[in-house]
């Protein structure tokens, strides 16, 4: 079962509730500031950025400036990869942007962890946490913090897309085939593709294909996110 902030963020129904949950989670993780951004790519024109954060007011304009994102090494990393980045002063110095780190460090944003989820249909979800102290130096503790942030991002992006993305942009839910629903239902029970195949009398490869198809149709990045979305919209119970 989901615990703490992981389950609570799924219950959010407004922007304020969502902001409260991501702030509370980041503080439990040991970070003072957090930003969650949904990015929607458009075939014509610039991408759309929908951000919820608690960045200090005096730094907010600079933080949300699109030009800033095009220069920021952390944002550029997240734009290209799904692997989290653990950053500090050296990250900016190596990119020739030491002065930018100096600017944001005045607002307590000296060290942090950031990641992005890249989804179908040109949608992306960015989540970053920052603080004025170094991230944990103990490898075991650091691994736990990063893992918690990655897991929370899967749940938070589901709530963010539901709350922040305008209805006119949301393409709605496609129909899943009975086999895709069955495969997803057994995945929800914790079955592997091999086990799903045995239950349904199909090959492991076919079972994985059904789950992958369902995940893609639901606009999700992995099977866990697909199960969560299917539960939320009533496809699974």
How would you sum up this structure, described in words?
- It is built from twelve helices and five strands.
- The two termini are 14 Å apart.
- The mean pLDDT is 88.
- Strand 1 and strand 2 (48-53) form a beta hairpin.
- A five-stranded antiparallel beta sheet has the order 2-1-5-4-3, with helices on both faces.
- The protein has 237 residues and is of the alpha+beta class.
- It has helices spanning 4-8, 15-29, 57-63, 66-71, 73-80, 89-94, 98-105, 139-164, 178-188, 193-200, 204-217, 223-232, and strands at residues 33-40, 48-53, 85-87, 111-119, 123-131.
Which spans have pLDDT < 50 for at least 5 consecutive residues?
none
* Total number of helices: 12
Computed CA radius of gyration, to the nearest angstrom: 19 Å
User: And the CATH topology of the largest domain?
Assistant: Beta-Lactamase
- In which order are the strands of the major sheet placed? 2-1-5-4-3
Helix-strand category? alpha+beta
Number of domains: 2
Alpha-carbon distance between the two ends: 14 Å
């Amino acid at each position: 079962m989901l615990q703490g902030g992981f389950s609570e963020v799924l219950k959010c129904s407004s922007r304020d509730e969502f902001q409260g949950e991501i702030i509370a989670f980041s503080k439990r993780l040991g970070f003072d500031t957090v930003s969650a951004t949904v990015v929607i790519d458009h075939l014509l024109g610039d991408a759309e950025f929908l951000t919820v954060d608690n960045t200090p007011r005096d730094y907010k304009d600079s933080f949300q400036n699109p030009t800033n994102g095009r220069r920021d090494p952390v944002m550029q990393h997240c734009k290209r990869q799904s692997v989290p980045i653990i950053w500090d002063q050296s990250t900016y110095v190596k990119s020739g942007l030491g002065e930018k780190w100096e600017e944001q460090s005045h607002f307590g944003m000296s060290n942090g962890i950031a990641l992005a989820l890249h989804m179908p249909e040109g949608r992306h979800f960015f989540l970053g946490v920052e603080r004025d102290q170094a991230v944990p130096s103990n490898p075991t503790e650091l691994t736990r913090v990063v893992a918690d942030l990655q897991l929370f991002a899967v749940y938070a992006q589901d709530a963010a897309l539901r709350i922040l993305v305008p209805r006119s942009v949301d393409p709605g839910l496609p129909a899943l085939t009975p086999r895709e629903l069955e495969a997803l239902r057994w995945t929800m029970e914790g079955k592997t593709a091999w086990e799903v195949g045995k239950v349904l009398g199909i090959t492991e490869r076919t079972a994985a294909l059904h789950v992958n198809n369902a995940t893609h149709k639901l606009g999700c990045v992995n099977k866990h996110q697909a199960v969560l979305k299917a539960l939320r919209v009533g496809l699974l119970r």
